[in-house]
Amino acid sequence: MEFADLYKLSIVVQGVASVVGFLILCAGVYSCWISPILAQRKLKRNGFKGPPPSFPLGNIAEMRKKVMVLPFDSHRASLGITHDIHSIVFPYFSRWSKLYGKVFIYWLGTEPFLYVSDPEFIKQMSTKVMAKSWGKPRVFKDDRKPMFGNHGLLMVEGQDWVHHRHIITPAFSPSNLKAMANVMVDSATIMLDHWSSILDSNNNKHEIDVENDITKMTAEIIAKTSFGNNIVNDENGRKVFEKLRAMQLALFKSTRLVGVPFSKFIYQKQTQEAKKLGQEIDEILVSIIKSRKDNNNDLGQDFLGIMLQDDGENQKLSVEELVDECKTLFFSGHETTALALTWTLFLLALHPQWQNQLREEIKQVIGEGQLLLNDPSNVSKLKKMGWVMNEVLRLYSAAPNVQRQAREDIQIGELIIPNGTNIWVDLVGMNHDPTLWGNDVNEFKPERFKDDTIHGGCKHKMGFLPFGFGGRMCVGRNLTIMEYKIVLTLLLTRFSFTLSPSYSHSPAIMLSLRPTHGLPLIVQHI
Ligand code: HEM
């Protein structure tokens, strides 16, 4: 090629590169700036109010100021133990809802979110839109991809969601759950025997961080129920189990600027760490799934085995989908249950009379000694324990919110929720709303569920949604209820609990609602 031709070619290449660069810049400016401004105008036209956002953080600056966890000592000194936690964990929502009502718009970066803590609005929303037509916020899908993938039940949408839900629901059938009860008894007993040996060498009284131990135990239970009993001894199984927990910690550590353009580049180290762990976990899960598939004659009755079964009607899930389902079940299946148990022990430590009432009920319903081992599913008859569980989920909602994204314009009364708007249903806000529960809203009163076991006397039937609402309601709720009752029965029949002086009351949102400094309790043999 002649020099002149080369020169012409390089001019053309430079021209094309400049045009491509310009187009990328335009696309960036449009999606990060112009599109959010247009969305904001549309929301205002449709009657939505809310705190004014600024570019590029939206309302995050104001939210982050208040989210900061106070240092251990100053927090202990400044806070007594109050169950009025909405203004502690979501001070900005608490303030904004006084200004703008129970439905308003706020911004995470350049993403508009519709805040909702009005049960009537939720009722109307869920009658207008079918479960499969809701989306899940794209910003969260992206942010939590290493944990849940994009093909697990929590994140899939549309017809894919229908397909996944259809395959996964049978795994939680009563007969499958009954078969899982012994796994729960075994794992809980290992933890309790360990506590016993600590007490034996400490004059029957010792401080134990129960949150830590309970989380490990529920993680072991979900690992065994997902992949079979051998998973904790198997080399690959142990690795995947450890890496899943490491990734969870990596994601908890970081308070990322979700919704802010290019924020991934600011938190590059954490993003890379979670991504790398995510890839390693995927590889190990693929090898576990493949070897299980090769052993076609014995797929097993754990979650993985059930998901692999072909009922002749449904196409099975692909390996990629199975990997995401395994991760989804692991993360959504142990953290929330562990927190429900942890906050229960906290509240029972403050209310020893309820420890005694539950022990009495256990004695009456289950009897003493070995009965639990004969038929662990007997625990379903423990009614008072059910009230306690509901009251704990009300005061300290393990899952503090439910999220959706509109995939079409939705008209609710006079308002139109524009397509693409993210929706944040504030369960903590509703659970602590005196207009729904009365003036004793922040008191621990399990008896409010005595005559109204489902709604606890809440003034609106959609005001208490610990497991979500509509067709996307939690698929694991029956498993949780059984696990909660089995573990709590075993705990209360062997030990008594009081709050340690070193406990600092600092509930905080780290995906779930957690005690920031753990839960140290003084544990004694009965
Ligand atoms: C105290 C324990 C639990 C609480 C408070 C809880 C709460 C929730 C909530 C609020 C939702 C969202 C529902 C919605 O979007 O409307 C949900 C969904 C889900 N939960 Fe749970 N959950 C718990 C335990 C579990 C367990 C043990 C598992 C699995 C073993 C599980 C698996 C899931 C899955 C897969 C979804 C997505 C369902 C779908 O979108 O179809 N959860 N849960």
From TrEMBL:
PANTHER family: CYTOCHROME P450 FAMILY MEMBER (PTHR24282), CYTOCHROME P450, FAMILY 715, SUBFAMILY A, POLYPEPTIDE 1 (PTHR24282:SF15). The chain crosses the membrane at residues 12-39. This is Cytochrome P450. InterPro entries: Cyt_P450, Cyt_P450_CS, Cyt_P450_E_grp-I, Cyt_P450_sf, Cytochrome_P450_Monooxygen. Pfam families: p450. It comes from Papaver nudicaule (Iceland poppy). One of its GO terms (biological process) is isoquinoline alkaloid biosynthetic process. Keywords: Heme, Iron, Membrane, Metal-binding, Monooxygenase, Oxidoreductase, Transmembrane, Transmembrane helix. GO terms for molecular function: heme binding; iron ion binding; monooxygenase activity; oxidoreductase activity, acting on paired donors, with incorporation or reduction of molecular oxygen. Its cofactor is heme. It comes from the Eukaryota. Its main location: membrane.
